[in-house]
Amino acid sequence: MKKRILLAAAALMLGLCSPVLAEEPDPAVIEEGYTEKGDGYTSVVTWMKNGELNIFGKFYYPEDFDESQTYPAVIMCHGTDATHEIYEKGQWPMRMAQDGYISYVFDFCGGSSNSLSDLTTMELSGETMQADISAILDQMKELPYINTEKIFIMGQSRGGIMAAMAAGRRPDEYAGMILLYPGMGMIDRLISSYPDLDAVTGDTIEDNGHVFGKVFLTDVYDWDVAGTCSQYKGNVLLIHGIADKTVEYTQSVKALTEYYTESESELVLISGKKSVHAFDAFWEPGREIAWNAVHDYMQTEVNRPAEAE
């Protein structure tokens, strides 16, 4: 099947993204049930469990949310050294709620030094991330107001490859997948850097300027990324900036043309000097192009009739 690769240009917006220093959260703000209302949405802090581990997260509900109804839902997986806040900076859960969908944004256990979930960054591994996603999916499916036939997964950067692996492991349980600048080559790069697992004598490894515990490498060493990701047969939307130097857009091209060949998946490439990694968190023109693509994708996939068994 011929793949669609769309190139979208965004006007240059002047100004640079200023770093934001993390602050100690107000304990009340992270308590179960803490609620905030905004334009077209309501967010509610909802902790989940991965076995004995505690996962911090928030549900974003549409403004007219009615518990007696069912809604499509999106699980949002963040990238390396980030938290759920990266999605909030990009306004993703807010925009999803405004379109009538429920979102769950969360911190991976050990996902960063600012994570509100359990574990340290040295305890983080590929399998703990997979277990987090799987546990969230299971608990989400138990909620009476979630349309279990229309659960989507979304991943950014490292969260992208984790989302893709999660969908490949449970391919019949996700209605669709959105991947933003996904780090699809991360595992191959790690194995290339550490070709002999037994020769890694320290407790840490390094990848792309980030330090992880050795357990991360141990967990993913035998992963068949291509084989697992390609088990997902649904339509995937990939979005990537062509100025991304952290995860080059060619990784999304490879995923589209090698992993998702049996679907109507497509890749939207965003051009412009600011189409860098995580552009959606600070670059409004690029974010709008990305959002419009996601909006159209969600409308199509939410309204797609279920296949007859």
Describe this entry's structure for a reader.
This protein has 309 residues and is an alpha/beta fold. It has a single domain (4-9, 31-184, 229-302), classed as Rossmann fold, CATH 3.40.50. 29% of the residues lie in helices and 24% in strands. The protein has helices at residues 85-89, 92-98, 126-141, 158-169, 186-193, 214-220, 225-229, 250-259, 284-302; strands at 4-9, 35-38, 41-45, 48-50, 53-55, 57-62, 71-77, 102-106, 146-156, 176-180, 204-207, 210-213, 236-241, 266-271.
Question: How are the secondary structure elements laid out?
Answer:
Layout: E1 4-9, E2 35-38, E3 41-45, E4 48-50, E5 53-55, E6 57-62, E7 71-77, H1 85-89, H2 92-98, E8 102-106, H3 126-141, E9 146-156, H4 158-169, E10 176-180, H5 186-193, E11 204-207, E12 210-213, H6 214-220, H7 225-229, E13 236-241, H8 250-259, E14 266-271, H9 284-302
Parallel strand pairs: 1-14, 7-8, 7-9, 9-10, 10-13, 13-14
Antiparallel strand pairs: 2-3, 3-6, 4-5, 6-8, 11-12
Helix pairs in contact: 3-4
